[in-house]
Amino acid sequence: MESRPQGRDGACVSRMRLSDTFRFSLANLVQRKLRTALTMIGVAVGTGAIVLMVSFGVGLQNELVNLFESGESLLMINVIPFKFNLFAGRPRAQKMRPFSDDDLKKIAAVDGVQAAWPDLQLRLRYEVDKSGSTTPVYAIPIESLTQPMRDMLVAGEWWDGKRQDVVVSLELLRKVKARQAGTQGEQHDAPDPTITPAEAQTFLGKELSFVFGGSEGGEGTSSATPPPGLAIDGPDDKGKRRVKCRIVGVYDEVKVGGFDSGVYIPYPFGKLLRVIAPPQWRFTEEGGMQPMKQGEYLSIIAKARSIEEMPRVIERLEALEYNTLTVKDLISVIDKFTLALKAGLGCLGGIGLLVAFFGIVNTMFMAILERTREIGMLKALGARDRDVRRFFLYEAAAIGLLGALAGLGGGWLLSMLMNLLARTFVLKGERFANWHLFQVSFWMAAGSIAFGVLVACAAGLLPAIRASRLDPVTALRHE
Amino acid sequence: MNAVEALGLTKAYRMGGATVMALDGVTLSIEEGDFVAVVGRSGSGKSTFLHLLGGLDRPSGGEIRVKGEALSSKSPDQLAAYRRQSVGFVFQSFNLSTTMSALQNVELPLLLDGIGSWERRERARELLDAVGLDERRTHRPSQLSGGEQQRVAVARSLVNRPALLLADEPTGNLDSETAREVLELLQRMNVERKVTIVMVTHDRPTADQYARRVLEFSDGRVVSDIEKPRTTPLAQEG
């Protein structure tokens, strides 16, 4: 007998090297190629399903966040009449008090607020080239023009805010063009998708009139006296009065993720129009609807001087008992929503991995049954229980690793295919040109591999323990 | 010096409601370098004795000492280390790993003992050479004859330079000619390598021919113990 290094308890300290254990396990896997491959496919399908599902959640989250999160929009604080909490019941169950000019002054005076203006939206009748319809009209101050808003212009430029100038959407021009084409034919409001930015250029300098009164009634009708400072024509023979404006810019609503047509006008101009415009409606505390009076606002937008000041500005506003809503709040809602979505989809994909789990358990138990004599032999040759346990655990882990790698590759390829299909058949057009609804990140990839290995190890644990506890004498007699 | 000392060794099994004494108070000692055959009918306790010697099983009572060390005081890991380093097994059905080459099979005890690959290879090849199979080292067990497989098993049992080689019916699956080769190999290893051999067999003539000492077991007891005079080269040395 050779003298060997002895441990404190007299046990010989030499033992099987981990690298040798791993090679030994791998060699056993290679010997059973078909069964290993079949078990691996189970893991691959499970992991691939999780990767595909979660990549959808991540892609959706990123695209939605991108939609909102852009430069100056992060500086905007919406002061709203209710506490924003998507998960705390309907907002109208809370106190819904419209804001007044006093509120506006108080908010504008808060330290760190660069400018504040009410959210002023009107719905007005308009005419371009004798063709008319109704449109939402957004009255915004020049301070609220963010870089994304500047970027969304495809022709002309933003107004300087001093005159009765308007910036209109491509969608509105499409409708105008469509109506002109169909004036004599059938009436249709379908947008004509063929209008180009170059065509939009031809509308610059043209006249757009907001129409009030007249026999048609309905929207755009008001009996109020026009305020001083508003240039208004008429009434003509049909009783219509027109506020004539000049189109100075055309924007592509798609570029800000919008789907609606609209007209942007300077805030002071909007304030004058509001006097004769039909009133905005608001929810009442009882849940009904009520027209808003002059000097009442649904919400007020405050623009902070800098990102750094945002938290303090919000604190100060809340100290004045104003409720706020920022892009960050929206993003946190998106995050919460997509987290739930990811968890749900991940669980769905996890079912595949659960099936794979039992596949591995089955494979490992079969392997033990087949190799009972071999386990007995290994123990007779001096393998410790933990060596035997490791042989089987490493085999399971290797199945998990290879399966997860295959699943990740498959899931990733599928997600690219899904992106292609989505853009080809569902998310058509320029609006979604850069959308990736399925996104596989590095951490998702690393996580899915780790998860696959973990599940495989968990599946291999019981068989491995069973193998390690086999009595060598009984195992050697096994037929 | 004694390689093995057994003192009042018992082993009881529960079978149904009854207790069966596989070993019933065995006391004996085996000298270092001896070649001992254990004979007896099926169920006489000879294999149980071998398993206890090899640390594969624990006695119900009594004590067994190998080179002065009591096996009953060893933990499971210590027993595994004892099997790795002090014992070599040869089985009736060879028990080679079918997925490994002859060389890898011989290396296995060293692999389990954490010996580096270079030393493993050297020692395994030396043993394969000693049993005359070096040129067949890359063959799998399925490509070897029964006699060759058992020679690989003998090489494997000796590669860790054990104090004790335990053979359980090593010729049970072999024809008489091949059996003779394997027994001669064991005899040669006993002489050349001075390894103590305890061989279980049910074949009395084989035991008489190759072993120096023959222990006969019956009902868990040693009923006869016959030693040949020490005329072997080993005895002259000892």
Number of domains of chain B: 1
The CATH architecture of chain B can be named as 3-Layer(aba) Sandwich
Q: In angstroms, what is the radius of gyration of chain B? A: 17 Å
Pair of chains with the largest interface and how many residues each contributes: A-B, 33 and 36 residues
**Biggest sheet descriptor of chain B:** 6 strands, mixed
- Note the main sheet of chain A: 6 strands, mixed, barrel
**Side-by-side strand order of the widest sheet of chain A:** 3-4-9-6-8-7
Given the helix and strand composition of chain B, which structural class is it?
A: alpha/beta
In percent, how much strand structure appears in the residues of chain B?
25-35%
**Residue share in helices of chain A?**
40-55%
Please tell me the overall pLDDT of chain B.
Answer: 91
Oligomeric state of this protein = heterodimer
Q: Kindly, what is the distance between the CA atoms of the first and last residues of chain B, rounded to a whole number of angstroms?
A: 10 Å
Give the low-pLDDT segments of chain B: 234-238
Tally of strands of chain A: 13
Amino-to-carboxy terminus distance of chain A = 33 Å
What is the third-level CATH name, the topology of chain B?
A: Rossmann fold
Question: What is this structure, in a nutshell?
Answer:
Chain A is an alpha+beta fold. Chain A has 13 helices and 13 strands.
Could you explain the architecture of this structure?
The complex is a heterodimer of chains A (479) and B (238). In chain A, 48% of the residues lie in helices and 16% in strands. Chain A has 2 domains: 18-67 and 334-477, no CATH class; 120-296, no CATH class. Chain A has helices at residues 18-31, 33-68, 101-108, 147-151, 170-181, 197-201, 267-276, 310-319, 327-370, 372-380, 385-426, 442-468, 472-477, and strands spanning 76-80, 113-118, 120-128, 131-140, 153-156, 165-169, 207-213, 240-251, 263-266, 281-283, 289-291, 300-304, 323-326. With 479 residues, chain A is an alpha+beta fold. The two termini of chain A are 33 Å apart. Chain A is elongated. In chain A, a hairpin with a 2-residue loop joins strand 3 (120-128) and strand 4. In chain A, helix 2 (33-68) runs antiparallel to helix 9, helix 9 (327-370) crosses helix 10 (372-380) and helix 11 (385-426) packs antiparallel against helix 12. In chain A, the strands form 3 sheets. Chain A has a 6-stranded mixed barrel with strand order 3-4-9-6-8-7. A 4-stranded antiparallel beta sheet of chain A has the order 2-12-1-13. Chain B is α/β, with parallel strands linked by helices and 238 residues long. Chain B has one domain (2-237): P-loop containing nucleotide triphosphate hydrolases (Rossmann fold), CATH 3.40.50.300. In chain B, 36% of the residues lie in helices and 29% in strands. Chain B has 8 helices and 10 strands. In chain B, strands 6-7-8-3-9-10 form a 6-stranded mixed beta sheet, with helices on both faces. In chain B, strand 1 and strand 2 form a beta hairpin. The longest helix of chain B has 17 residues, at 176-192. The N and C termini of chain B lie close together (10 Å). The chains are: A alpha+beta (479), B alpha/beta (238). Chain A binds chain B through residues 1-2, 4, 9-12, 14-17, 20, 24, 27-28, 31, 373-374, 376-385, 387, 471-473, 476, and chain B through 51, 54, 56-57, 67, 75-78, 80-87, 89, 91, 95, 97, 99-100, 108-109, 111-115, 117, 156, 160-163.
